[in-house]
Design a protein that fits this description.
The chain has 322 residues and is mainly β. The chain has a domain of 99 residues: Jelly Rolls (Sandwich). It contains five helices and 24 strands. A hairpin with a 6-residue loop joins β7 and β8. The longest helix has 9 residues.
Length: 322
């Protein structure tokens, strides 16, 4: 593989193209400054303005959300896995019908495998612009977002209407629903009753892993984070490992799986027959199956990285709390 071919499979943090109109709450005060990024796959964006960096999916999607302080992402639900790790800043994740069932604060490097089937939201509670990176299960990321009824109602009051086709229409800009397309229906009270409301104590032990715990566990080998035998035991169609300076030998390796590399701290040298490059925090590299490659910290100091591989498990389905 030539350096140019590999470069086409690497999305640099500085090249990320945001969309500020990705979701229904794009005009809602408190949520109107967030930026959505689709890095690998189309994600779950509801906007035609969303830029997709790499369209080919490896059985999952990679995305990101960037938000200034006090900006929040509204309560929503997914049919498949949604995993976040914090790249920059300090974030509060909350869940439940009204966002009051439970919450957890994540620091840089922490990871959260959000249970499928619950309403969830998040906000930047740090002092600077923050960024969280996302892994979404399945090639089509579950077919979209299910919004809490109040989110749809608030958005309508600010000019945005979500069609039953999953697309957004800005009435303040003169857009209207096409003929034959009805507004997205609100969930009924019976449907809402079936959505779990787990407590903080039910969620944190099995769904959250802390950065410094993973650093310690990855001292001599990769730390399995999300896997059937991982810290967060699950089989969502992909596995997530955490690597630090001592996790890998210098020798090249290959796998029959798609592999995505996402540095958190430090600089990592990626080498393959045909070239080498340095991956920096916030970069995303999609390594094709069967390509021998080597990975090692490029400089002294702290170095950490998430590695994601597809599996043969049902695409995107993760554990559901009842």
């Amino acid at each position: 593989m030539t350096p140019d071919q590999m470069a086409a499979r690497i999305v640099r943090y500085g090249d990320l193209q945001p969309c500020k109109t990705a979701f229904i709450d794009a005009h809602t005060p408190g949520s109107d400054q967030k930026e959505n990024f689709t890095i690998i796959g189309g994600g779950v964006s509801e906007s035609a303005d969303q830029h997709v960096h790499i369209s080919e999916t490896p059985g999952f999607n990679i995305g990101a959300a960037g938000q200034p302080p006090k900006c929040r992402n509204s309560l929503h639900n997914h049919r498949t896995a949604e995993v976040f790790f914090v790249l920059k800043g300090r974030w509060r994740f909350f869940w439940g019908r009204w966002g009051t069932a439970g919450e957890v604060v994540l620091e840089e490097g922490d990871i959260f495998n959000i249970p499928t089937g619950i309403f969830r939201g998040f906000e930047n509670i740090g002092t600077d612009y923050g960024m969280i990176m996302a892994i979404l299960g399945g090639d089509d990321a579950g077919g979209g977002v299910i919004w809490a009824p109040q989110v749809i109602e608030d958005a309508r009051d600010h000019g945005l209407v979500l069609g039953e086709n999953g697309k957004l229409y800005d009435t303040k800009a003169g857009a209207t629903l096409p003929a034959g397309v009805a507004p997205m229906p609100l969930l009924t009270e019976d449907e809402l009753k079936d959505i779990p409301e787990p407590s903080t104590a039910q969620v944190i032990p099995d769904y959250v892993a802390r950065y410094w715990d993973m650093m310690a566990l990855s001292d001599h080998q990769p730390c399995k984070v999300i896997a059937a035998d991982g810290l967060l035991q699950d089989r969502p169609g992909f596995e997530v490992e955490f690597l630090s300076r001592g996790s890998l030998p210098d020798a090249a390796y290959s796998t029959d799986r798609h592999e995505v590399l996402m540095p958190v701290r430090g600089h990592w040298r990626l080498s393959w027959e045909g070239g080498s490059t340095v991956l920096n925090p916030g970069d995303t590299a999609a390594i094709p199956p069967s390509l021998p490659h080597a990975l090692a910290p490029a400089m002294t100091g702290e170095a950490s990285l998430y590695r994601i591989r597809n599996t043969d498990d049902p695409a995107g389905l993760t554990r559901r709390l009842t």
